[in-house]
């Protein structure tokens, strides 16, 4: 798949948050995170509809909930709702399986920040074992899915 002049919207879901990143021609243009969108499937769908209307992407990328995934509970419900929204609205989309290619998500985030320096200020620090995952980590999950399309 070529990505010349492609507008890619990538959406990631995690516990307590939904985020998207937007690229044009492989360049990072915008990113947002919403805690409200993680409260219910309808709110997640609403965030997706607004992002699609705002950015008019050529393709939307998100994790494939039908393949092995670490998502569960409300995160999986919201992910399924996003996929249903893309299908119902006939929005061109691509579902990807998240495969771990780095020792951990923080090493992956560092590699992505080197490639996309604009997002470096949001680079998450590795938390202590007793600390929660930083909110900003979700941006890099979305970005990693978009990179699969850009490089694909």
General description of the model:
By secondary structure, the protein is an alpha/beta fold. 38% of the residues lie in helices and 22% in strands. It contains four helices and five strands, in the order E-E-E-H-E-H-E-H-H. It has a five-stranded mixed sheet with strand order 3-2-1-4-5, with helices on both faces. A hairpin with a 2-residue loop joins strand 2 (17-24) and strand 3 (27-34). Helix 3 packs across helix 4. The longest helix is centred in the middle third of the chain and has 16 residues, at 73-88. The protein is globular, with a radius of gyration of 14 Å. The relative contact order is 0.21.
List keywords for this structure.
152 residues, alpha/beta, five-stranded mixed sheet, 5 strands, globular
């Amino acid at each position: 798949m070529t990505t010349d002049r492609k507008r890619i919207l990538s959406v990631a879901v995690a516990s307590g948050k939904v985020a998207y990143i937007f690229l044009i021609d492989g360049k990072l243009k915008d990113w947002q995170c919403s805690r409200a969108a993680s409260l219910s499937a309808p709110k997640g769908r609403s965030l997706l509809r607004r992002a699609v209307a705002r950015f008019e992407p050529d393709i939307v990328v998100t994790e494939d909930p039908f393949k092995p995934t670490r998502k569960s509970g409300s995160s999986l419900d919201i992910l399924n709702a996003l996929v249903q929204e893309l299908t119902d609205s006939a929005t061109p989309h691509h579902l990807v399986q998240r495969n771990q290619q780095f020792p951990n998500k923080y090493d992956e985030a560092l590699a992505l920040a080197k490639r996309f320096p604009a997002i470096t200020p949001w680079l998450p620090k590795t938390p202590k074992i007793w600390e929660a995952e930083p909110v900003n980590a979700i941006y890099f999950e979305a970005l990693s899915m978009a990179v699969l399309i850009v490089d694909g």
